[in-house]
Sequence to fold (254 residues):
Amino acid sequence: MTDPVFIHPLPQDCGAGSAFALTGAEARHTEVKRMRDGEPLVVTDGVGSAIRGHWSAGQVVVDEQLGVTPQVPRVTVVQAIPKSDRAELAVDLMSQAGADRIIPWAASRSIAKWDGKEEKARMKWENAARSAAKQSRRLLLPEVTELLRHPQDLGSFFDANPASSAPKILILHESATQGIQAVDFSGVEDVVLVVGPEGGVSEDELEQFAALGAQPIRLGPEVLRTATAASVALGALGVLTARWGNETGKATIG
Fold:
């Protein structure tokens, strides 16, 4: 069984042998799990630093620092807002499957709307991503961004550094003729997966994404629901790219 993961700020000095206390929700989590002295655990700040340690007298005693580097290529999911009962499921599944960043998208055919409640809705997605990351033993938390209102604004979410390569943007579309297995990912640093609403991506939106260099692809013969499409695509990317074979991009837990 792998070590439980707690997401909590790490002290500035957390070398081997040092100790610190967990606070807030993570302190309550230790009570729920009934942590006993000597039991191993991992604590990550979710953004690049993590330690393996053990529980002792109500504190975390650090055994070692863990190297944490992002997977390559980095994957951003542009997720059209699903119906309320499926939104958190979509975020949960894509977080388990390894999404690095999640951009909620107010697609024209999305039934659910965030008008007037953007921050509250985004926090729900953030909490779902955090919970799924802990359950799947992730050391890097998926970032949940502000709402994307128009496809042409997607470029603002990426580094404007001219030395950076442009992201490969893939639209999951049932009418696409090319499968994801035919896409060339050589040298690609960023992949963007665009997942439309249940009603599909409109022609106008397809044109706007196409102007950014996006290409429509399909995952297979089945038409997937918006809540599951990203997680299936992430699984495919794990096989088709170095993400699952990139041992430098993960830290072994347990």
About this structure: Residues 110 and 197 are 5 Å apart (CA to CA). The longest helix spans residues 118-135. The first strand starts at residue 5 and ends at 7. The chain has two domains: 5-66, 74-247.
